[in-house]
Amino acid sequence: MRNIASCYNEHAIKVTDSYCSNPSNQVLYHIPSVRNVVTCIYKVKVAMEKQFFVKVTWCNMLQHGFSLHISEKLNKNFKKVVTTDKVKGSKTSELFCSRFDICWDLSSAMYDEGPEPITGYFVKVLVNSEMGLSLGEMEHDNEAKNLNVDDTFSRFVLVSRSEHYSGCSVFATKAKFCDSGTCHDILIKNSSAMLFVSIDKKSVIQVKRLQWNFRGNQTIFLDGLVVDLMYDVHDWLFNTKTGCAMFMFRTRSGLDSRLWLEEKNLEQKDEEKVGFSLLICASKNPD
User: Fold this and answer.
1) 155-175: per-residue pLDDT in tens?
2) Annotated domain spans of the chain
3) What Pfam families does the record point to (predicted)?
């Protein structure tokens, strides 16, 4: 019996060097839009196999700031814990029969093109005195170092990332689809006539006559994984004032034979094994 990778390989686009050997597949780069909102959801496991989901949203609409929400279920009943533009602080909340201690320091944070700091910062979430989520650099974390923290059982993984762009029709980002994979450069160029998507400078989809083909999907074989690329640019094309375009990359587990799952099956899958998804949302206007 063939494995799942070999079955999908017959119809999926493989992101390899040979695929890009033809000059017609080379990417023409343009100045990309700037991200103004980034939301990341992490699955956090602590002792006794207790599991939480932590959603961190970075925003620079007016000035750099972030918010943090916590839930027991993926994409359900997130409770707001922190919303602030303060560069340093801490907060304690009692949720889901657990104590959450959050501390952060962005006073020395460095930013690239977007709201998410890249260095010189930390955000820590402690669950019942156990380290749950640790973002940033430990050497800047003098406050957390002084805490009595047990990180023996702690482990967290990024399961979802969404990015919001506005204005331009060219979007560039990076994504890692699994822990053992590499970080990939993703470029999306969306015009009124054609949609172009590349990964690591290799074309994975080119859609012409976009006004007729404004929704669709493509299967990609990447890092030994089956990745579904889905797009919807209907509102971007036909709503001139507030139109938006959406692009989703989602890993498919070996048990998934369908692109879309019923809601109840999807909820069960979320509980058993959470993959990774990247959502890119683009709007013509900042509002």
Assistant:
1) 899 999 999 998 778 999 999
2) 4-33+167-283, 39-159
3) DUF868 (PF05910)
